[in-house]
Amino acid sequence: MTTGLISGEQPPEYPGPADAFPAQQRQAQDGRPDPHAPERTRSSVITARAAASFEPVGRSVATARSFVRDTLQGWGFADVIDDAVVLTSELVTNAVVHAGTAADVVCLRSTEGVRIEVADQYPERELPLQSAALTMTSPDQEGGRGLQLCAALATRWGVDYTTTRKQVWFQLDLPDRAVGTRSAGPALPVEMLPAADGRVRVAVVQIDRYGAVTSWNEDAEDLFGYPAASVTGKPLTDLAAWPHTPGTGTGIAEALRLSRWEGSYGIRDAVGRVVPVYASHLRVRDPQGEPSTVCLLVRNEERAVLQSPSRGASSGDTAGHDGRDADPFEVFIGSPAPDDLDGLLQRTVERARDMLDADAAFLLLATDDETELEVRASTGLPSARQRFARVPVEAGPGRYGSARMPAVHDDLTAAPGAIPLLNGTGMRSVVTVPLKVEGRLTGSLGVAAESPGRYSNEEALRLQFAADRIALAVESARLGELERLRRGSLSFLVEASDLLAGTLDRDQTLALMAQMTVPTLATWCAVYTINDPSSEPYLSYVLHEDEDRIDGLKALLSKISPPDPVPTPGARVWTAPFEAAHEAALRTSMRSLGLGEPTTLSSGIGPTLATASAVGGETVVLPLVARNRVIGMLTLGKPTDEHFRQESLELAEDLSRRAALALDNARLYSERMAISQSLQRSLLPPELPRIDGVEVEVIYQAAGEGNEVGGDFYDIFPIRDGAYGFAIGDVCGTGPNAAAVTGLARHALRLLAREGLSGPAVLQRLNSAILDEGERSRFLTLLYGELWPQEDGSALLKVVCAGHPLPLRLRQDGTVEPAAEPQPLLGVMDDLELYEETRVLDPGDVLLCVTDGITERREGMRMLGDDGLADVLTTCTGLTAGAVAARVLRAVERFASEPPSDDMAILAMRVPGLHAD
């Protein structure tokens, strides 16, 4: 469909219709006024124009009806909407169904009324009926009904031809009425007037062009409990409980910008309850030309106060507002396009209620397995009976259950539980009819009244006829919505899987689980975790879409027992939060009345009314099952009077399975990391000894994510009085096997050195121990030395460098030289010929020992190497051992942009001399 809308002054005249039937085949006169038209029409001025084109497919008829209805509603022509929609529906049907061509629809607003033109590309001049046949002979007759309706309903009408197209047009004049009145209804007897329980409160709310409240009268304060000062300046949509305006395809924000609008929606009052209201919106302009909207709001059950008389017939009377006999099923013709399911369903229940002069109406759609019916739209019922509440399909003795056949209940008090949806609503009589497509139950439509005996089989047949006319459109729209939901669900699950797979941190996984469900699937979420089968569920994470309510919600949930960890798949209802919220609300109410507290309340539960309202809706629990074990529960909740839809629960169940596996993977990874870190700590000395006359500094950095045990190690330990051993080594590889060799080497070095063996003897016996490990053995590079501080401030050094990077000595004059010679590494050959080298560290000298993660640091083809390390050490003259180690580490990190790929260990020892720096 393509649409063009032009507002403002147009050419001052348009071709008027003829008054006699023979003139219907006259050609259009190039925009000049028809000389046969009455003077009133020839002087009319077009003030606005809206146009749309519709493809030659069946769904275009419903789309055209919606286009005309919305256009005339925006222009404020509510008095002629129903007639215009009926005529447009028939004429567009002729064009796109019977003629098989596209249809062009033009709406023209004038000072007198509205003119609608429907054109097709089938220029056949023969009319289907003669003038004598303009009387409808049968209501089931199809041929020529569009022109018959034009003759019956339109003020004027006609047919214009060109060589390529045929255009049927009609004009509807606004009814004459007294100045200042929008519409008028008949005078009714007192007993037929709508009853009011008390003083009717009409809330008057003014909204500025941005949707913010600028005026809030006393009746609005009484209805909703908000003082004017607390809502002035806030958007009205912040108080709206129903996100879409029932009866239209637009939201409340869009409805506020229409010229004229009537309909129902919900306002959340100061204590969190949803107050269904019937609203009348009128858009006005102030003296400065700024637009604003005046809203008149009454309780939904008092809708007759604001409702236009033309919306429905009186009780027991099917006459329309213009005196003609109204088609009782005509109220469903103006439904929105089938792809607007919510608008279609809500408009259907409102018109069903008007059609049978009922107090309430509801429409339920069947779930995929047809075992339950889900409330999708209702009017005149408490808000708790609104969307997505589910009731079972009652099983009957025959082929169909009672929900699959029309049913009339004269008095529900005589059959309690017959209609579970109406329990506790005060409704007495009800008629329900099924919605079926090709014999399959797709839903149920019902209307109810507070008085008994209101409906008979005749009303049931009328409602069934109406239901049959909309069943296919509803099912088509439902399938379209279901397809969109499934595509969205797949996209949601793919994104959720990517996010969950992107982290192995337990806390982050919990946060992701909650953030993916709120507010997409639920208003609030709580995650319980179970560490082991013998432990109780623990409340690990709580999230609410309103951050101000998180603390109160957490306090409430922490005071009640967690849900049972049942492994049965699927969502199950959990009533404990609702019951706790109800008790909290009762306590608060009794305190405010000075009545104390009820004795049945549990002590310690003290959430605010806002928190109670936040958890007062449906709450469900889904088990988190991974590897055949329940590791937690995912709890989802809605605020007061709201329910989950079945598709949302199925999507949440899919998400819970993925989240459970991700959470268990995070748990396993955390356990593995904890084990690795504990093992790594056990392979390093707990603390460095304090050596008189020698500064010692060690820096150790393991590569990777911390879940692998590194192969580098170091140790400094006392051998005997005045002598200290030190070692720095690197075992080939990482992981458990490397850790086994590392542990063997470190502990063997201490044990053998303290036995009084020389350095070569210690390393030879260590080499034999490594080879004895067999397949688990790893080769090992090791620098081992013994240090004796001297009385003159120097230090005696004996070292053996077995395949390890050579230690570097920094003298006070800035020269750098190796402090040992290379010898064979360990773990390769049985017989090793090793020897010990003796060096003296003078006061101010530094001995630097590193692993190959330092010297083999790479950037592309470049490598730091021994020479690069020596250059860095040259710049460290006069620095302490800690400063030397830190400068070397910074130089290594800056050498390449990529993070280190190997473990790095730095051991720096400095002899400060007799007079410490």
TrEMBL record:
Q: Tell me which UniProt keywords the record has, alphabetically.
A: Hydrolase
Compositionally biased intervals (Polar residues): 307-317
Residue ranges of the region described as Disordered: 1-43, 306-326
- Residues annotated as domain PAS: 204-234
List the InterPro entries. Bact_Sigma-Reg, GAF, GAF-like_dom_sf, HATPase_C_sf, HATPase_dom, PAS, PAS-like_dom_sf, PAS_fold
Pfam families found in the cross-reference section:
GAF_2 (PF13185), GAF_3 (PF13492), HATPase_c_2 (PF13581), PAS (PF00989), SpoIIE (PF07228)
**Presence of keyword Lyase:** no
Where does the record place Basic and acidic residues bias? 29-42
PANTHER family from the UniProt entry? STAGE II SPORULATION PROTEIN E, STAGE II SPORULATION PROTEIN E-RELATED
Q: Protein name, please?
A: SpoIIE family protein phosphatase
Q: State the species of origin.
A: Streptomyces chilikensis
